[in-house]
UniProtKB/TrEMBL annotation, chains A, B:
<keyword id="KW-0285">Flavoprotein</keyword>
<dbReference type="GO" id="GO:0010181">
    <property type="term" value="F:FMN binding"/>
</dbReference>
<comment type="similarity">
    <text>Belongs to the flavoredoxin family.</text>
</comment>
<dbReference type="InterPro" id="IPR052174">
    <property type="entry name" value="Flavoredoxin"/>
</dbReference>
<dbReference type="Pfam" id="PF01613">
    <property type="entry name" value="Flavin_Reduct"/>
</dbReference>
<feature type="domain" description="Flavin reductase like">
    <location>
        <begin position="12"/>
        <end position="161"/>
    </location>
</feature>
<protein>
    <submittedName>
        <fullName>Flavin reductase family protein</fullName>
    </submittedName>
</protein>
<dbReference type="InterPro" id="IPR012349">
    <property type="entry name" value="Split_barrel_FMN-bd"/>
</dbReference>
<dbReference type="GO" id="GO:0016646">
    <property type="term" value="F:oxidoreductase activity, acting on the CH-NH group of donors, NAD or NADP as acceptor"/>
</dbReference>
<dbReference type="InterPro" id="IPR002563">
    <property type="entry name" value="Flavin_Rdtase-like_dom"/>
</dbReference>
Length: 176, 176
């Protein structure tokens, strides 16, 4: 994993990929699958996400206020779905599913070696948690794997069906 | 446009497509391009989105508390980018760009005929607008074009580059 500019973090999240969210609480790392997230601000890069109170990760996220958003490509789609099909209450998902935790630089939650990008995040606002389970995150460090410049992400369309990235097109846009 | 079940609205938004957001204020319809949105709740279908105070649509959305999220496919990608490259302050975007407004059922903002799906929305919470420009929407009526069952959406990766949906894959998921 190599350093990735924070100012470009939105280019990873804005397209709506399914991501993995890691946490570490009481020494125990966990990972969940997540599609309900969005960019909120370019600088500092801020991300909103929904983590249900029913998810085992909820308490870890709320208490430690740290997490990693790890972005998988289609090659590990089966592991991504597997992470969504079980709970960290019952098992060590990293060991069971075959995901490799790596130490992060600024948060206790682990990076995931198999993901082409990892965003270290701190929870900066929980005011919408009670009402909507909405956490506001700030990306404090970003990593990517330069060996995989054009990863194909997956986008959940419901009930285990995912659109895989196809071709890229570029149009003359004034938008960053 | 045919009726589409509200309970499945998330299947349109969760994959992270670039969308068009329409409003109508003081009799004038407008449309903007938007990628910063996410599902918040299945039932009622709730969507969060960021609309900058610098966007001309901001006042219309905040004052009328109504909008339509229209979902385009790749065939009209140039129109989607064009809608993001200009402001409704200066022109009638529908006429200039060649988008056809259609009357909605429950909101004053128009549907867009060229989009394969349209979600009529009401703003239900502005408590995070001042802090983050974050609007909470509830989908009150959904439409889709049954003539286009497998539209390819586009996902913004920054500076006018978009990933176009490729193939679908289906895995054995417990997630809705």
């Amino acid at each position: 994993m190599k350093d990735f500019p924070l100012s470009k973090a939105y280019q990873l999240i804005e397209p709506g990929p399914v991501v993995l969210l890691t946490t570490r609480h009481d020494g125990k790392a966990n990972v969940m699958t997540m599609s309900w997230h969005m960019m909120m601000e370019f600088t500092p890069p801020r991300i909103a996400c929904i983590v249900s109170g029913a998810d085992y990760s909820f308490i870890a996220l709320a208490k430690t206020e740290e997490c990693v958003i790890a972005i998988p490509s289609v090659e590990i789609a089966e592991k991504v779905v597997a992470a969504g099909n079980c709970s960290g209450r019952d098992i060590d998902k990293f060991a069971e599913i075959g995901l490799t935790p790596l130490p992060a630089a600024k948060v206790s939650a682990p990076l995931i070696a198999e993901c082409f990008a990892n965003l270290e995040c701190k929870v900066v606002d929980q005011d919408f948690v009670e009402r909507y389970n909405l956490f506001v995150l700030e990306v404090v460090k970003a990593w990517h794997d330069p060996a995989r410049p054009s990863p194909k992400t997956i986008h959940h369309k419901g009930y285990g069906t995912f659109a895989v990235d196809g071709e890229d097109i570029t149009l003359d846009s004034k938008m960053p």
